[in-house]
Amino acid sequence: MKSRKILIIMNDLKNGGVERVLSVLANYLAARDYDVHILTIAEDNVSYKLDPRIHHRHKQLLHLYKDESIGAEIKTVRGIFREMKEIDPDCVIGFDDSIIIRSVPSAWLQRRRIVVSERIDPSIYGAAMRAVRQAAYDMADAVVFQTPDARDYFPKRTRKKSRVIPNPLKEGLPERAEDINKDIVMACRLRAQKNVHVAIEGFAKFHAGHPDHRLVVYGEGELLGELTEHASRLGVGESVVFPGHTDEIHEIMSHAAMYLSSSDYEGLSNSMIEALAIGVPSICTDCPVGGARMFIENNVNGILVPVRNADAIAEAMSRIADDAGFARALSSESVRIRELLSTDVICPQWEELL
Fold first, then answer.
1. DSSP string of 194-240?
2. For residues 6 and 223, what is the distance between their CA atoms, to the nearest angstrom?
3. pLDDT tens across 9-18, in order?
4. pLDDT tens digit sequence for 133-153
5. CATH code for the part of the protein at 183-339
6. The whole model's pTM is what?
7. Which fold has domain 5-165?
8. Per-domain boundaries in the chain
9. How many other C-beta atoms lie within 10 A of the C-beta of residue 225?
10. How many CA atoms lie less than 13 Å away from 238 in the CB half-sphere?
11. Separation between Cα atoms, residue 117 and residue 93, nearest integer Å
12. Is 6:91 a contact under the CB 8 Å cutoff?
């Protein structure tokens, strides 16, 4: 049975939460003697280490980057159909809405098992996208959600064939360091969803009484210039730092005073669960679709704050900074997540489903 051929389709394999989860799952399946194929259709780049037994094939099929016509969309879908037929998988996995709606019809027409995974707050899309996505989910054999809240957004027919499987933790995460600095670390793409604006506003309020701390935001994105100006306007330009992407984020986290996630919505934040597992006192918005509240018990292993509330962010920062005992208690409780989300716990749930 373990010689079954699995095809995972993605836009690319560059840095990102979905891409990291995909790489962990693909490596696990390859190690279990599945014949794993990954097809990327947009960009030919790989930021995560893949097992050498995995067959990675890139075909430039996403013509919509240069041409947004219906003809380009049809061309993309036809390309996926041809690649799928040539690879001839027993099971197809789609990890992203744009991939799901383009690949599921091909898998359905070719009578292949289809497993799709919702990775973000499903309520953010408009009516047309929701209708198309629901049609794809109706064709699928199974739908994986990261949180119960995401699952419960969908009708009963979808919930009946669903499974809630949270993200696995990256293996080899460091322990909490002994030499803790004064940095408040964020790790995210610099885009609207992450609402780094409110993080900066909360930090500015906190910084007035804690001038020795910095807010260090690791990541890249189109809002870098705007966020830099925002920090300057609030008078904390020299204390808010944007170093860009780093492969050393987990080692950096292990020395940080705190971790912050200020997202307006998330699927399940990988950087959040990694910070908890490392033992960094963590502050996260209690945002849709419930990933933070799924793993953070407020004031026990982390702090939950309302979405878009700079005052609450500042208050949470102050509590951690001013109470070393509280910070240590959060840290000692948060590392328990390692037992819940280890690869050996999460990936077998995927294997069973496939």
1. G-HHHHHHHHHHHHTT-TT-EEEEE---TTHHHHHHHHHHTT-TTTE
2. 37
3. 999 998 788 9
4. 999 999 999 999 999 999 999
5. 3.40.50.2000
6. 0.92
7. Rossmann fold (3.40.50)
8. 5-165, 183-339
9. 10
10. 2
11. 8
12. yes
